[in-house]
C-alpha cells in the first residue's frame, strides 16, 4: 500500500479525486439547501394565500361554520381570538403543532371589548387584514394522516368578533420528496462521477508519466553499466518532461566529458611522473654501485622537477574540487613587479589596479605566464597592467615565434606541448597554462592567447576590479 501511494500517479489520482469529491459535496449541499429553501418558500406562499382567503371571509362577516377553508382539503386551518382561544378549526383535525395553539376543538368565543389593537401593537381598522405574515414549520394530523406543514399566520380585525388570527398550513411533502430524490441522485451519481474522474486521471497521468519511467529505466541501466555514452530518450512533446530529458542528457554529456578528462589526467600524470622517478632511480642505483659516478646535480634537478609536478597536480586537484579563491585585496602592479624581479629580459609597465582574490594563486598565474614567455622569447618579455572599464588587464608578451592561431585554445589543455621547446628537458610538463586558466576562471576572469606587438605570443589575463 505504501508503495502504491508512493507513486506520483497514485497521489495525483487521489488528489484529483479528493478535490472533485469536496467540490461535489459542496455543490450538492448548496443545491439541496437552495432547493429546500425554494420549496419551503413556495409552500409558505400557498399557506399565506389560504390564510388570507380565510381572513377575507372573516373580515366580510362570514360565520365560523361557513368558512370555506375549514374543509381540510388544502391543509389545516386554525382561527384564534385575541385571547388565544381556538374559535374555528379544520374538520377532522386531530393534532397540530407549530402554531400558537395545539388545540383542535373550537372553544366558545368571548365578547369583543372593542379594542382594535392587536398584541403586537399594529393598529387595524374593522374589516382590515394585516399586511404582514408570520411563518413557521410544524405538523398536523388530519383524518389519520400526519404530515409536515408550512404555516402562515395572518391577523384580521372584524367588526363583530374583534381581533382574530388565522393559521393556515401547506403540506411539505413535495419539498421532502424533491429533496429526497435529489439526495438519492447525488448519492448514486457522485460515486460514479468520482470513479470516472479517478479512472481518467489515472490514465492521463500514466500516459503523461510514461516518458519519465523511460528516463528512469535508462538512468538505471546507465548506472549498472557505467556507460556514460548512453543517453535517455527525449519525448517529442516540448513540455517539462522533454526539457527534463534534454537537461539529463546534457548532464550525462558533461559528466562523460569530465570523467574522460579525469581519465586522461590520471594517465598523463602517471606518464609525467614515471620519467623523473625512473631517472632518479637510475641515478641512485648507479650511485649505489659506483659512488664515484653519482650525478648529484642531475638527481637534485630530477627531484625538483618531481616536486614541481606534484605541486602542480595538487593545485589542479584543489581547483577541480571547487576550491574558492580568497577575498583579499591584491595589487596586480605590485604583484607583477614582484614576480618579474630577478628574471632576465623582463620589463614591467604597470598602473596600480586592485582585484579581489588569492594573492598566492594570482602570483602563480603570473609566474607560469612569465616562465612560458621566457621559454619562447628570443630576448625580451614585457608585462603590462592596466584598467579597461570594470576590468583589470594583465598582459604578458614575448618576442618569440608566437602561437599558431589554430592552437591558441589547445595550449590551455593539460599536458599539451606544441613543440620541442615545451619538452620535459626544458622543465615544462604542459600544466602551467592549464593551471593559469583554471585560476583565472575561479576568480571570475578569463585568460586568452593572441599575437603580441613584437610578433610573439601575448597572454591577457582579465579580472573584475575590486
Quick synopsis:
The chain has 7 helices and 13 strands. By secondary structure, it is α+β, with helices and mostly antiparallel strands. The protein has 3 domains: 1-217, no CATH class; 240-320, Helix Hairpins, CATH 1.10.287; 328-464, Heat Shock Protein 90.
How would you describe what is shown here?
With 466 residues, the chain is α+β, with helices and mostly antiparallel strands. The chain contains 7 helices and 13 strands. The strands form 3 sheets. A 6-stranded antiparallel sheet has the order 2-1-6-5-4-3. Strands 8-10-11-13-12 form a 5-stranded mixed sheet. Mean pLDDT is 85; it is low at 114-121 and 420-425.
Strand content: 15-25%
Q: What does the radius of gyration come to?
A: 51 Å
H-E order: HEEEEEEHHHEHEEHEEHEE
User: How many beta-strand runs?
Assistant: 13
Give the strand order, joined by hyphens, for the main sheet: 2-1-6-5-4-3
Report the uncertain regions. Answer: 114-121, 420-425
Question: Total helix count?
Answer: 7
Ends apart, CA distance between termini: 59 Å
Count the domains: 3
Shape: rod-shaped
Largest sheet: 6 strands, antiparallel
Helix content range of the residues, please? 40-55%
Mean pLDDT: 85
Properties at a glance:
Heat Shock Protein 90, alpha+beta, 19% strand, Helix Hairpins, 3 domains, six-stranded antiparallel beta sheet, 466 residues
How do the helices and strands line up, and which of them pair or pack?
Blueprint lengths: L7 H52 L17 E5 L4 E4 L3 E5 L36 E9 L2 E13 L5 E9 L1 H53 L14 H50 L6 H25 L7 E4 H9 L5 E5 L3 E4 L1 H18 L4 E8 L2 E8 L33 H11 L3 E6 L5 E8 L2
Parallel strand pairs: 8-10
Antiparallel strand pairs: 1-2, 1-6, 3-4, 4-5, 5-6, 7-9, 10-11, 11-13, 12-13
Helix pairs in contact: 1-2, 3-4, 4-7, 5-6, 6-7
